[in-house]
Amino acid sequence: VRCSGPGLERAKVGEPGQFVVDCTNAGPAELTIEIISDNGTEAEVHIQDNGDGTYTITYIPLYPGAYTLTIRYGDQDVPNFPARLNVEPAVETGGVKVFGPGVEGKGVFREATTDFTVDARALTKTGGNHIKTCINNPSGNRTDALIRDLGDGTYQVEYTPYEE
């Protein structure tokens, strides 16, 4: 059994990864594929029998990070598997900067609106609906935030903390 294709080495969140498993010299057996992140999340996997002893595997990972890719044929691990697979974020966020009192902890008071800035100019110079926020309180509850697009790739995010 041989495996090949770009989806064996890397993938992006939310985008299909693909590879081919060639079983033409292995005889008939069941092919099983598992792609599981280090935190236990399984990627959605589709196995297409090409009818010629090969299979096209398509998967969609939902989270970035390291995954374990297990390929078994006839209840036996395929040579070189399990293997590690790196799933990259859908967007390269390394150039995005977040700063301001609302994330630095200075001047953040209960029931007093605060803010912070997201500088995403490394991704966009014109703004748009590109960012989302998730602000968690100490209890685990979420606080709503207002995101204002400043039209130049920067965003102002305002929120009011209701817990200390």
From TrEMBL:
Q: GO annotations under biological process? A: nervous system development
**Pfam families assigned to the protein according to its UniProt record, in alphabetical order:** Filamin (PF00630)
- What's the superkingdom here? Eukaryota
Q: Does the keyword Repeat apply?
A: yes
Task: Give a yes or no for keyword Repeat in this entry.
Answer: yes
Q: Which sequence ranges form a coiled-coil region, renumbered to this chain?
A: none
Give start and end residues of every Filamin repeat: 1-87, 88-164
The UniProt entry, under PROSITE patterns, shows: FILAMIN_REPEAT
Q: What is this protein called?
A: Uncharacterized protein
Q: Identify its protein family.
A: Belongs to the filamin family.
**Key words of the record:** Repeat
